[in-house]
């Protein structure tokens, strides 16, 4: 299993179990390849004085959690039972991880995760529920990943190797009151083990300790 840097994908898990956190990007399509700018964790509403439309995405700030976060859409390639399809699905799953951590809403990730994935259940799904209960949120902590390899040892299974790192983050329980701060992680590798029935699902996540 992962070391503390990845086990704490959830801000809640960071506070209750190990002390590392992560969060979703403001722009989903850039989450896997680009480093965030220094201003990513300080995004604020426009200073024009105009109110933000009620359904417009608002990233998390020190004042409060993100709002109206768009749910990542699965690309068509990720539906295919091929090596390239498995790779595309793994990238999509990374976006879902970022969504869960930013919102504490695990509903979108549940249908593409098996019960056998202990890490997914404990560190993502269960932690998101606890996050809602405690009312914590974080600024920063975006997960970045790059697929290094994808292969299918059997017809309905695949393993995708990903190099990843997590941006620095700040955790809040109350507006403008810092609860915890965490530095950017170093680059590590993880393996997503996938199983295919009517769609790809993550069956296990393993990696460096």
Nutshell version of this structure?
The chain has helices at residues 4-7, 11-16, 83-103, 118-134; strands at residues 137-140, 143-154, 157-166, 169-174, 177-182, 188-196, 200-207. It has 209 residues and is an alpha+beta fold.
Which SSEs are present, and which pair or pack?
Blueprint: H1 4-7, H2 11-16, H3 83-103, H4 118-134, E1 137-140, E2 143-154, E3 157-166, E4 169-174, E5 177-182, E6 188-196, E7 200-207
Antiparallel strand pairs: 1-4, 2-3, 3-6, 4-5, 6-7
Structure description:
- The chain has 209 residues and is α+β, with helices and mostly antiparallel strands.
- The protein has a single domain, classed as Nuclear Transport Factor 2, Chain: A (Roll).
- The chain has helices at 4-7, 11-16, 83-103, 118-134; strands spanning 137-140, 143-154, 157-166, 169-174, 177-182, 188-196, 200-207.
- The strands form 2 sheets. Strands 2-3-6-7 form a 4-stranded antiparallel beta sheet.
- The radius of gyration is 17 Å and the shape is globular.
- It starts with a helix and ends with a strand.
Distance between the termini: 6 Å
Q: Provide the residue-averaged pLDDT.
A: 81
**CATH architectural designation:** Roll
User: Structural class, please?
Assistant: alpha+beta
Coarse shape: globular
The fold-level CATH name is Nuclear Transport Factor 2, Chain: A
Give the total of beta strands.
Answer: 7
Q: Note poorly predicted spans.
A: 1-48
Instruction: List SSEs in N-to-C order.
Output: HHHHEEEEEEE
- Tell me the quaternary state: single chain
Q: Portion of residues in helices?
A: 10-25%
Number of domain modules: 1
Widest beta sheet: strand line-up? 2-3-6-7
Cα gyration radius (Å) = 17 Å
What is the CATH domain class?
Alpha Beta
Reported for the largest beta sheet, the result is: 4 strands, antiparallel
Tell me the fraction of residues in β-strands, as a range. 25-35%
Q: How many helices does DSSP assign?
A: 4
């Amino acid at each position: 299993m992962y070391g503390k840097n990845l086990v704490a994908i959830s801000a809640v898990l960071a506070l209750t179990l190990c002390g590392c956190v992560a969060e979703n990007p403001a722009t989903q399509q850039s989450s896997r390849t680009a480093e965030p700018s220094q201003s990513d964790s300080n995004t604020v509403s426009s200073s024009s004085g105009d109110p933000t439309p009620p359904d417009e995405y608002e990233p998390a700030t020190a004042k409060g959690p993100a709002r109206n976060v768009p749910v990542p859409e699965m690309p068509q390639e990720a539906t295919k039972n091929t090596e390239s399809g498995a790779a595309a699905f793994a990238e999509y799953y990374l976006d879902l991880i970022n969504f869960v951590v930013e919102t504490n809403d695990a509903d979108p990730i549940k249908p593409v995760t098996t019960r056998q994935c202990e890490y997914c259940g404990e560190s993502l799904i269960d932690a998101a529920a606890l996050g809602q209960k405690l009312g914590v949120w974080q600024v920063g902590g975006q997960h970045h990943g790059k697929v290094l390899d994808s292969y299918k040892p059997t017809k309905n299974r695949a393993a995708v190797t990903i190099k990843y790192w997590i941006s620095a983050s700040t955790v809040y329980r109350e507006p403008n009151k810092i609860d915890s701060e965490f530095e950017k992680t170093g680059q590590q590798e993880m393996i997503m083990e996938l199983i295919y029935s009517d769609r790809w699902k993550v069956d296990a996540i393993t990696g460096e300790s």
